[in-house]
């Protein structure tokens, strides 16, 4: 028998050389809504982009990547 389960979402923010693991505030929210939610606490997220999801350790991992200070 095949059993399907929903994977937990994990959001990773890289700030000052360190990865910060952010929990999912509301599983029904879109990834963009989660980004906006955390932007009030981490202002660097106001200009961040969202990387493609990757499955790691039985969770779907999204990375918030800052575009501040990069050219091109």
At CATH level 2, the architecture is: Roll
Radius of gyration: 13 Å
CATH secondary-structure class: Alpha Beta
Structural class: mainly beta
Tell me what portion of residues adopts beta-strand conformation: 35-45%
Pfam family, one: Prok_Ub
InterPro entries: Prok_Ub, PRTRC_protein-C
Protein name: PRTRC system protein C
Q: Would you summarize the structure shown here?
A:
This protein is mainly beta and 72 residues long. It contains one helix and five strands, in the order ββαβββ.
Please provide a written account of the structure.
This protein has 72 residues and is mainly beta. It has a single domain, classed as Ubiquitin-like (UB roll). Helix content is 12%, strand content 38%. It has one helix at residues 31-39, and strands at residues 8-15, 18-22, 48-50, 54-56, 59-66. The protein is elongated and about 50 Å long.
Helix-strand layout with pairing:
Blueprint: E1 8-15, E2 18-22, H1 31-39, E3 48-50, E4 54-56, E5 59-66
Parallel strand pairs: 1-5
Antiparallel strand pairs: 1-2, 3-5, 4-5
Pfam families: Prok_Ub
InterPro entries: Prok_Ub, PRTRC_protein-C
Organism: Flavobacterium cupreum
């Amino acid at each position: 028998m095949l059993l399907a389960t929903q994977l937990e979402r994990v959001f990773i923010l890289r700030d000052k050389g360190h990865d910060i693991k952010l929990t999912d505030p509301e599983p029904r929210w879109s990834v963009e809504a989660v980004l906006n939610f955390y932007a009030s606490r981490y202002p660097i997220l106001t200009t961040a982009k969202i990387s493609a999801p990757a499955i790691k350790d039985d969770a779907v991992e999204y990375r918030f990547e800052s575009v501040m200070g990069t050219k091109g």
